[in-house]
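Notebook p. 47: complex prediction with fe (iii) ion.
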Amino acid sequence: NLILAFESSCDETSVAVIENGEKILANVVATQINSHKRFGGVVPEVASRHHIEQITICIDEALQEAHVQTQELSAVAVTYGPGLVGALLVGVSAAKAFAYANDLPLIPVNHMAGHIYAARFVKPIVFPAMALLVSGGHTELVYMPYENEFQIIGETRDDAAGEAYDKIGRVLGISYPAGKTIDELAHQGQDSFHFPRAMVHEDNFDFSFSGLKSAFINTVHHADQIHETLNKADLAASFQQSVIDVIVKKTLWACDQFAIKQLILAGGVAANHGLRDTLATELAAKQPQLDFVKAPLKLCGDNAAMIGAAGYVAMKHHVFADASLNAAPSLEFDWVPDAVK
Ligand code: ATP
Ligand code: MG
Ligand code: FE
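Predicted complex, structure tokens below:
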């Protein structure tokens, strides 16, 4: 089985060739970060234009790198949501055209399922599983009883974790996306500010990061007003420790409440070294029977390889789309039983 996978939901144009849902033959990622940096975030119009310029180049490169001929492909998988509508449309249109021209089945993939299935490149997913999904637009705990069922048991009520990183990054003068730089800075500082840990003792699996963001911004602005210079590394370390404390506590609790066999850490913020290490240490100490799998560092951010892995699972469950497939910017996981929501 060879899947040609497409990803274009935000600011990465990516095309991959995946063998049997588990082996990456090619994963070409064209990032647009440099074009968006000066605006401090992703500009939708600019993103769409870049995707259009890059998509066919990515297809050619991926097939070449994989040493795969079009006739050898089994299916085409594509992210159809969630994401920016104009950005998604480029990938969806390209995938539809490619599938139609080459008489291949088309598999619609939820971008967030893709993030989770990035972990598949480390080892097989064991069910029931729990996924901690932390990214630029989402912060969720997802219970997965079976391989194609996703049930959100908790999520952020305001900012996503990655969004909070990017917003406080702006205050520190760190360019978009700020997560990686703040992570590095945090390792040189200490949690001397003790920012709030929102909702950590609440009886649910939800998160909130806007209070932390405000506390951080107020601290920096106040210091500015009295011409005091704060230690940036300590600020970063304090922010990061607050984020990690809350996420790790809630995740461990969720793992304890659900009979699961494996915890998956995925999404752009899963690249955070502090989070990866703390979660591993805490799990080993408190729930040693639970298997823990982290998405590979290089596959935490947006890429088409993860879409190919999720597409392979969807294909096994006969999830196909026809030429009427459209971009779904606010796509959610469709299986949410009444008992939960
Ligand atoms: P979504 O997947 O929710 O639709 P997205 O695709 O824009 O959103 P991702 O590409 O999954 O988001 O992740 C990007 C986010 O990850 C950015 O907010 C970035 O700052 C953050 N990030 C990347 N590396 C790190 C890190 N080491 N520590 C913290 N955050 C990080
Ligand atoms: Mg991105
Ligand atoms: Fe993403």
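Notes: The chain is about 40% helix and 20% strand. The CA atoms of residues 258 and 333 lie 19 Å apart.
Next step: compare against the earlier run before touching the bench.
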